[in-house]
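Milestone M4 deliverable, item 7.
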Amino acid sequence: MGKNTQIISSAEKGFPKILSQISQPAKKIYYRGNFDLLKGPCVAVVGSRSCTAYGIRVAGQLAERLAESGITVISGLARGIDTVSHRAAIDAGGKTAAVMAGGLDTCYPASNRKLKEIMEEGHLVVSEYPDGFEPRPYCFPLRNRIISALSDAVVVVEAGNRSGALITAEYAAEQGKKVYAVPGNITCSASFGCNKLIRDGVTPLVILDDIIIDMGLTPKTEESIGEEGLGEDEKKVLDIVRKNGEVSIEEIVHITNIKPHLISGIITVLEMKGLVFFEMGKVLVAKF
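Output delivered:
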């Protein structure tokens, strides 16, 4: 046993009862960090390792809103959506927990070792495997039953047709947990899994605060950060970007009849205020 790893068994007080009631019950949980984080409201934010810019934005903003509302963000410390969710919760001053697929003295992917160390100090990492156990392929889908079990609800942000996040959604449904899916572009393969979940009856998450309200909590009041002092043209451009989701500078010029060099200046101001960002020739909204 690693010097920082602690263990709690199903016979002990404080062991999450749900883990003894799920299919393939967990008899022991190894952990590093603050196990009490699991006593409060928890939401799993999961998705593909190969995520798009859209998935990254949604996962980051969702985790931030959850963290600001006192909800622990749970995920699997994998690349992509998991990593974004953990980091966003930490950056927002909230709490986050990761369920690992191997012993806590290992880290997969290795690129997340620093993030894991941060979570071991002020947050939480857990596993059903002892130190020294190297993660095996079957461990990753199996650990998803624990991610869903420890959560009050599960949000699938982005998932392809064969994404492991869909396995988490299946476990959550079996466990009677509320499942949400973020709608995506129907022409984008990365959104196929989420759109299919919605078609099959999963609740679409179209307003980030809906999940917080559904849990009986009050979302932290979000002020119009950065919008104070905007001029009429800046408000007009921001409204166009929000309405379209993403739009080119040429399209903004066409809609507003404002000169291109002035539009460029307005976009710069909106970027500095954190309201929009520019990527691959398109202006995109930074806050939903």
